[in-house]
Design goal:
single chain, 285 residues, alpha/beta, TIM Barrel, four-stranded mixed beta sheet, 13 strands, globular
Length: 285
């Protein structure tokens, strides 16, 4: 990536969870597993759309998905997409001890390296949460960036390690690490907008009009272009969610609108590399 150039940067990212998302929730009967299976149907559709428009993208793929759908995952690589790690079977970090998390991370790194022929540089936590041990393990394994935190909306920043949050006083922030954060937000994730899930004790309604979701995202882009120099916005998609026909049509319309703004698309690795080299992103007056 050359020096950041207004009006801004957009990272399209895809969490290709497959059945592992439902395995993590212990929902392994035929119906929920089939929802994960649909992700493998949707990925080729997404790749055709992205390739036609010449848009680079980043896929975060659990190791279980790589082993279950090797041919589809190879299509992702052959299309020139970046591949980052996303756990082995979409394990939630907070529910693992250090040895379990270490083993899942090492296994997922090895599987991505076997798939792509290169060591992955990026990570997104399943369910979007890091623990202190997660941060230390990412640093230990030489990952260059994370995309699990929400401390900014348009600017990469360094992940801290060793924060303390006492109940009787102000937060004590730990030192910055070498790990770069490319922030995301639930408000920029297709899952809560669009996916219906009936849990035992609650219902996540989802099933909103995708046009409403993309209208919100276009507002984020327009504000970024107006107020921020070299801003970076990360959007999170799930193939099993966005891959339905009416949603793909809405995605195409959104990409047309983004093109009118002159947005530059980048892989997340490109942005992280630029940040590491000292390029300034997300500058507000």
């Amino acid at each position: 990536m050359d020096a950041p150039n207004p009006p801004g940067h957009l990272c399209l990212s895809f969490d290709f969870d497959g059945p592992s998302l439902w395995m993590m929730r212990k929902m392994t009967t035929a119906a929920p597993v089939s929802r994960g299976e649909f992700g493998a149907v949707a990925v080729p559709r997404l790749l055709r759309l992205l390739t036609k428009r010449g848009i680079p993208s980043t896929f975060f793929i659990p190791g279980h998905t790589i082993e279950t759908y090797p041919d589809v995952c190879k299509m992702v690589v052959d299309a020139g997409c970046e591949v980052g790690i996303h756990g082995y079977a979409h394990e939630m970090n907070a529910l693992q001890n250090e040895s379990e998390e270490r083993a899942a991370m090492a296994r997922s790194i090895d599987l991505v390296e076997q798939l792509t022929g290169r060591r992955p540089v990026g990570y997104r936590a399943p369910a979007g949460d890091l623990t202190a041990q997660s941060i230390e393990l990412l640093i230990e394994h030489g990952l260059q960036y994370d995309s699990s935190l929400m401390g900014h909306d348009y600017r990469p920043y360094q992940v801290r390690s060793g924060d303390a949050l006492p109940g009787d006083g102000p937060a004590r922030w730990g030192p910055e690490s070498d790990l770069i954060e490319l922030p995301w937000s639930w408000s920029n994730d297709d899952y809560p907008y669009l996916e219906f899930v009936a849990f035992k004790r609650m219902i996540m309604p989802g099933l909103a009009r995708p046009e409403d979701m993309f209208s919100n995202w276009m507002g984020d882009l327009r504000w970024m272009v107006r107020e921020v120099t070299a801003g970076v916005l990360t959007l999170v998609f799930h193939p099993q969610v966005i891959g339905r026909g009416h949603r793909l049509l809405a995605l195409e319309a959104f990409l047309d609108q983004a093109a009118d703004l002159g947005i530059v698309y980048n892989t997340m690795a490109e942005v992280a590399d630029g940040h590491r080299r000292g390029l300034a992103f997300g500058i507000e007056a």
